[in-house]
Amino acid sequence: MDPQLIAEAVDEVGRVLRGDGADLLLLEADPKTLRIRLELRLDNVECADCVLPPDQLSQTITQAIRRRMAGEFELVLDDPRT
User: What's this model's pTM, rounded to 2 decimal places?
Assistant: First the structure.
């Protein structure tokens, strides 16, 4: 697991979210545990329902990561809506 590639994937999805006032932060990309932990920030969002729903957001993030790296990983998304 390359943390730089993970950061690029997170930034790709984050750019889309920032259009709605949200943001996506990379908290952890641990090559030993293969855990990727992210935090969805909704501080500047006027409509939380306008941001991708949690399941769809997780799928979008997973796809962005898989385009950059092969293999298994655990995605943990801290989403205040869930």
Answer: 0.92
